[in-house]
């Protein structure tokens, strides 16, 4: 059984090599700050799976940063609407890439944290204190994940900077968690990068904080979870709830863009049309999370398909318990990653 588990982990890792993502651009009130500007972007788009590793803070360990590290600190007005932009490859959007911004199988939540620092250019990220300002998880009524909306918006996620937090330098930590393999631990895939920002103006609140590592446990119900079967009736996003000013909501604002053409050294793109988005309210019910787990031993088979031009796209889902979509591959073969997730591979 141990040998089988190790083999399954290896297969799962190999099967998702080409389905990762990187936070690599930040927009401030509709203004594109430029590719890689002010963001500690790694050279590889792979995930972190160990919640006890320092790599879960800002990445950059097993996925080394591009060098030199960015020297830009992005100025952000208090209350500004920021937009994270993520892509599968490390050089911006690629319309020819079916896994850009991330493969549709990588369903899960998206979050944003801030940590107050003396200097946003600091190379030391251990020991920082973080508070969450944004999260989006699962809409159970429509079975829509944050990642589904993220894909529909071509890798864009909007959120607001709270007006009540103090001015100064911060590290902004954007995080996406892919849960397609999270029925065992380590299985959830954590993608995160940190941006260097300076908040101009603001208030004097002192939000409660958490530490990374430490904010998540491998047994958290939002980390150890089977998202396929039976259908989820609720999903608890890992970590604390977002900090809000005066106990109110912190709505997001989706903003339309007229251009996404930028250079690495200049800020050239702007958005000129603003649309009002839906303000979503969340009711969080705190419950005890004592959960039982049943381990089922099952046989596993690999189905080979010659690729007939129909069926799931390469690296798309093609089978598993509860799966009702295509069970053949347009190219490659359908390989079992776990009992609930089979994937088309070359």
Automatic annotation (TrEMBL):
Pfam families per the UniProt record, alphabetical: AA9, CBM_1
GO cellular component: extracellular region
Protein EC: 1.14.99.56
Any GO BP annotation: cellulose catabolic process
Low complexity compositional bias, start-end: 93-102, 252-307
Region (Disordered): 84-103, 246-309
Keywords attached to this entry: Carbohydrate metabolism, Cellulose degradation, Copper, Disulfide bond, Metal-binding, Monooxygenase, Oxidoreductase, Polysaccharide degradation, Secreted, Signal
Enzyme class: oxidoreductase
Molecular function as annotated in GO: cellulase activity; cellulose binding; metal ion binding; monooxygenase activity
Coiled-coil features, chain-numbered ranges: none
Cellular localisation: Secreted
Cofactor entry: Cu(2+)
Residue ranges annotated for the CBM1 domain, each copy included: 310-345
Reactions mediated catalytically: [(1->4)-beta-D-glucosyl]n+m + reduced acceptor + O2 = 4-dehydro-beta-D-glucosyl-[(1->4)-beta-D-glucosyl]n-1 + [(1->4)-beta-D-glucosyl]m + acceptor + H2O
N-terminal signal peptide: 1-19
Domains as described in the record: Has a modular structure: an endo-beta-1,4-glucanase catalytic module at the N-terminus, a linker rich in serines and threonines, and a C-terminal carbohydrate-binding module (CBM).
Family listed: Belongs to the polysaccharide monooxygenase AA9 family.
Function: Lytic polysaccharide monooxygenase (LMPO) that depolymerizes crystalline and amorphous polysaccharides via the oxidation of scissile alpha- or beta-(1-4)-glycosidic bonds, yielding C1 and/or C4 oxidation products. Catalysis by LPMOs requires the reduction of the active-site copper from Cu(II) to Cu(I) by a reducing agent and H(2)O(2) or O(2) as a cosubstrate.
Protein name (Swiss-Prot/TrEMBL): AA9 family lytic polysaccharide monooxygenase
């Amino acid at each position: 059984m141990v040998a089988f588990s190790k083999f399954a982990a290896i297969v799962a890792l190999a099967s998702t090599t080409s389905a990762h993502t990187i936070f690599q651009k930040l927009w401030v009130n509709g203004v594109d700050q430029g590719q890689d500007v002010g963001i500690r972007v790694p050279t590889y788009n792979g995930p972190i799976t160990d919640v006890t590793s320092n790599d879960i803070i800002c990445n950059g360990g097993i996925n080394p940063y591009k060098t030199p590290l960015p020297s830009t600190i992005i100025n952000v007005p208090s209350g500004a609407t920021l937009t994270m932009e993520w892509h599968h490859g490390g050089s911006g959007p690629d319309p020819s890439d079916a896994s850009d911004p991330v493969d549709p199988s990588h369903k899960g939540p998206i979050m944003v944290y801030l940590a107050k620092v003396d200097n946003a250019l600091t190379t030391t990220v251990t020991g920082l204190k973080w508070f969450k300002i944004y999260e989006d998880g699962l809409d159970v009524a429509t079975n829509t994940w944050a990642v589904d909306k993220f894909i529909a918006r071509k890798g864009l996620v909007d959120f607001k900077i709270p007006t009540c937090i103090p001015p100064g330098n911060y590290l902004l930590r954007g995080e996406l968690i892919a849960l397609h393999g999270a029925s065992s631990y380590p299985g959830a895939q954590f993608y995160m990068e940190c941006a260097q920002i300076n908040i101009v103006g603001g208030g004097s609140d002192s939000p409660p904080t958490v530490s990374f590592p430490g904010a998540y446990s491998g047994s958290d119900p939002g980390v150890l979870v089977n998202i396929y079967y039976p259908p989820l009736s609720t999903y608890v996003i890992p970590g604390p709830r977002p900090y809000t000013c005066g106990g109110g909501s912190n709505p997001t604002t989706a903003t339309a863009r007229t251009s996404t053409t930028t250079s690495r050294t200049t800020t050239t793109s702007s958005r000129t049309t603003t649309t009002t988005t839906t303000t979503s309210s969340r009711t969080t019910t705190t419950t005890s999370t004592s959960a039982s787990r049943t381990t089922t031993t099952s046989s596993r088979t690999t189905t080979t398909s010659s690729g007939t031009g129909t069926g799931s796209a390469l690296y798309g889902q093609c089978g598993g318990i509860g799966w009702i979509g295509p069970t053949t591959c347009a190219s490659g073969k359908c390989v079992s990653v776990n009992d609930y997730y089979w994937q088309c591979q070359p």
